């Protein structure tokens, strides 16, 4: 019989099947991305990273101290996947030129990769047939505060594993909520227009197969600054940190800071070495 939990009872990250709370009841507190429901941060922003071929690659929470991204992966029933991944991740990042270290955190090993001007912290947790990974990226001076915030976000994250079979380590499909999918379509059209090509018919995240599509985030009451409002005001950017405006131009101060640029530099070095 499944154990029942409530968000905030210190037992997270949670499996959706173990919660007494329904997914649709989290509409204002969590961004529903299909396989994972991520709690938004007060005063933060939702951003989507777009690839060169106009496809969304990742969804982030941007805060004053850094950027947080969460993905869920399929895992074997035996568990223990994060321990393997953490070791491989540390070796891979070190080989790419980052100064890496491993620290003991609330759930076990946390991998830290330091690059010029920034730090990236990888936190993983094993669940029932899934593993969830949080990546927190920010400038050097805010690393302690960002680590604390990332753990708080991960502690209230919910995983919707579904019943579909996926090989271990495969990223569980992300499905964008309607309000964010509309924003992605607008960003795709703008990128395509600027490149002089036809816009793609649909985004990869929106069309990805999933055992369970996200519950609609439409709600009778939209909480100011909550998940629905943050998704509706999402910002889009490319791998080169170029901001894509999809509606009314935002004030400069409201745009996402470039705390993720250190990871972009690390990716750039990786591409140049290939």
Explain the overall architecture.
The chain is of the alpha+beta class and 274 residues long. The protein is 25% helix and 27% strand. It has one domain. A hairpin with a 2-residue loop joins strand 7 (99-105) and strand 8. The N and C termini lie far apart (50 Å).
Short descriptors:
27% strand, 4-stranded mixed beta sheet, 13 strands, alpha+beta, 274 residues, disordered C terminus, 6 helices
Taking the sheet with the most strands, its summary is: 9 strands, mixed
- What's the overall geometry? globular
Number of strands: 13
Uncertain segments are: 203-213, 245-274
Helix fraction bin: 25-40%
Strand line-up in the sheet with most strands: 7-8-9-10-6-5-4-12-13
N-to-C order of helices and strands:
EEEEEEHEEEEHEHHHEEH
How much strand content do the residues show? Answer: 25-35%
Alpha-carbon distance between the two ends: 50 Å
Radius of gyration (Å)? 18 Å
Overall number of structural domains: 1
Structural class of the secondary elements? alpha+beta
The number of helices is 6
Summarize the model shown:
The protein is an alpha+beta fold and 274 residues long. 25% of the residues lie in helices and 27% in strands.
List the helices and strands and how they pair.
Layout: E1 14-15, E2 30-32, E3 36-39, E4 45-50, E5 56-63, E6 66-74, H1 81-95, E7 99-105, E8 108-115, E9 118-127, E10 130-139, H2 143-155, E11 158-159, H3 178-195, H4 204-207, H5 227-232, E12 235-238, E13 243-244, H6 261-273
Parallel strand pairs: 1-11, 4-12
Antiparallel strand pairs: 2-3, 3-11, 4-5, 5-6, 6-10, 7-8, 8-9, 9-10, 12-13
């Amino acid at each position: 019989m499944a154990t029942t939990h409530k968000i905030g009872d210190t037992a997270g990250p949670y499996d959706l099947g173990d919660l007494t709370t329904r997914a649709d009841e989290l509409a204002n507190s969590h961004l529903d991305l299909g396989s994972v429901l991520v709690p938004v941060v007060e005063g933060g922003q939702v951003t989507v990273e777009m690839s060169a071929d106009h496809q969304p690659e990742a969804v982030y929470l941007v805060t004053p101290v850094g950027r947080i991204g969460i993905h869920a992966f399929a895992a074997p029933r035996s568990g223990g996947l994060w321990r393997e991944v953490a070791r491989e991740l540390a070796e891979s990042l070190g080989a790419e030129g980052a100064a890496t270290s491993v620290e003991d955190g609330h759930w076990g090993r946390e991998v830290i990769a330091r690059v010029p001007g920034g730090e990236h912290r990888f936190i993983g947790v094993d669940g029932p047939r899934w593993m969830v990974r949080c990546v927190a990226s920010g400038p050097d001076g805010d690393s302690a505060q960002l680590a604390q915030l990332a753990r708080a976000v991960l502690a209230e994250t919910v995983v919707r594993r579904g019943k579909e079979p996926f090989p271990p380590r495969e990223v569980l499909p992300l499905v964008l909520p309607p309000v964010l999918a509309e924003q992605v379509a607008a960003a795709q059209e703008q990128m395509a227009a600027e490149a002089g090509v036809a816009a793609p018919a649909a985004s990869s995240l929106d069309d990805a197969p999933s055992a369970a599509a996200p519950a609609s985030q439409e709600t009778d009451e939209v909480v100011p600054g909550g998940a629905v409002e943050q998704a509706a005001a999402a910002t889009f950017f490319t791998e080169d940190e170029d901001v894509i405006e999809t509606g009314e131009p935002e004030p400069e101060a409201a745009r996402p800071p470039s705390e993720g640029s250190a990871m972009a530099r690390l990716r750039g070095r990786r591409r140049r070495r290939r």
